[in-house]
Chemotaxis protein CheA (Candidatus Dechloromonas phosphorivorans), 733 residues
Amino acid sequence: MDELTSVFIQEGREQLQAMEDGLLELEQNPDNHDNINSIFRAAHTVKRPSGVIQCHFIERCMHQVENVLDRLRNSEIQVSSDLTGLLLRCCDQLSSLMDVLEAGQPDPSADTKAAGDALLVELTGYMAPSAAQSSAMVETEVEIHSSGGGMMITDAWHISVRFGPNVLRGGMDPLSFIRYLSSLGEILGLETIPDAMPPAADMDPESCYLGFEIRLQTRASKADIERVFNFCADDCDLRILPPDSKLAEYLKLIKELPEDDMRLGEMLVRCGALTQAELDQGLISQQAAPVPVVEEGEEAPPGPQIGEILVDNKVVQKAVVDAAVSKQTQVNEKKAVEARLIRVQADKLDQLIDLVGELVIAGASANLLATRSGEGDLIEATSVLSRLVENIRDSALQLRMVQIGDTFNRFNRVVRDVSKEIGKEIELVITGAETELDKTVVEKIGDPLMHLVRNCMDHGIEPAAVREANGKERHGTVELNAYHDSGSIVIEVVDDGGGLPRDKILKKAIEKGLVQPTQSLSDQEIINLIWEPGFSTADQVTNLSGRGVGMDVVRRNIQSLRGNCDVSSVEGEGTTFTIRLPLTLAIIDGFLVGVGKAAYVIPLDAVVECIEQKNLTTDRNFLNLRGEALPFIRLRDLFEVPGEAPPRESIVVVQFAGQRAGIVVDQLMGEFQTVIKPLGVMFPHLRGIGGSTILGSGEVALILDVSALVHAVSQSEEHRLLARPAQHKISAV
């Protein structure tokens, strides 16, 4: 039971997320019936297993939600903002109940129960049909349909019922409902559906696992038949199709059949499209069909299918058979996809990555020893081993790669709720959701993104009246965009609001003593003041922002992932936050360089090209690279490496965020599979170094932080140019 509960919690949360995504989509496209059906199926998928694991507080809540969704699906109620908001709050409540179940508590707390009871009261308002709807239902029931066309020609009612597990506990016998039905007319067909019945060892004698498909010939109305099941209305799934029902009703019933393992004939019988006797006769006709004569070596053509025989005998309409075949295809495809999926615990995956990292280091050591030995066969064998290790590394890292779209989709709900809370009209636009990055990065980037999005809505987007006065559309837009660039993933949070007010930022910074009144700052330096701890331009504290807590934490969290975050803004047009992160935190392809006796690793994705330069001048830090000024930095000077530089030095041209810079080193040592080892807690503010790795010789090499180096080079050269604009002469390569 513990294992079943664990699986239910995991899959239940996935279905709740699917419900939430569907509800947010429904609010934008209320006429999308496929989406409504998907929401209903997700709710039903949560409800059914909750009874199996005997979690009745989830089952009761889910049952009421399912009732409302069923009326929505049947167009008995209309989509509205209030309804979707209520159903979204129900998703939150169900998530809280999942937490209760996961914690092993027998019942939710008093506060959680009170919140659930309040939601059930609101749901009840959508479950009671209005007088106008009742009248329309009666008119539909007494309407006389002519034969042919889009009708199913039957003279009996079809009743599909699935009893819930608590029917027996409530003192009710399912057979008593069947006997009562027989008092209304004649039961022409009855099939017991035991699909929900578990193995004998897991069976609860007090739970009901039965369902029935019934053909009833009666002059009673639909309301009379419904009253038979009034006593168990809250604990059964009931569908009633009147005689000569529209073809669409049968197609809909086929699509919504909850059982998965069904043959075509069984499906048609269960939905009432034909009787068991008609199916048996069709099977007899199929067996009696003549076997075609084929010559030796030829493949025998397939025999007649049961669906074709039933259609030819005019027992059932072709559209119904096609719908049943489509349902079968969907079930088979779903099972095929599920069969290819294996759930693996994250810690096991982390252990695999650690072992692969050690394998990479061991392989590098073996390769180095083979090279030193000079044995050709050994060198060839280790090269093959290195190639296999590289393939294993790539495959293992791919297991950790997940699409960022799941993280982005969470913000649909955030934007909806916050926009209503602050009274603004805001739309979320997502692009690049299919972009993949390391699972660890995805997990840790959620909170910084949440803070940036909420700040864009609170500070960036103006109220609708202000936007109209400025010639903008009433509704504002927040964009989330992701893409790959130079071995990194770039995430952009963009709003089309009023931008960052530079004058206001500078004034606040002077008030807080962050800058001096006489200090001269560029526009970008003023904007970057928002990252300072405790800084806020909000005039008053709200639930969203205003306390000056968050932006510095955002930047610190991103930097802990070996990334960085920049901001750009145009007053009156909007603001863009750009986050750059490494694709993985475990293993990368590196480019090994040497300075003196030390070795350093540059991420290979950041390397553009390498240049050899003789007698590089030391009086300036830039050179002419094919007509463009390339600033550079000497690692020997940066890390204060003792000794003289060699006559011929090499320049590694790197690129980050569209900016290029050169890194001057003594020698180039080639590509190197780099297992990233984090720096210790003693080096939290070390600039220019992003980690360390172990070489095949056992020595430690530092991994260069390209982003920090490019930024430092650009800043240094900009200040030099401002100080001595007339003294620079660019030397040609």
Notes: The chain has five domains: 2-128, 142-276, 346-402, 404-582, 587-723. Residues 346-402 form one domain. The CA atoms of residues 90 and 119 lie 7 Å apart.
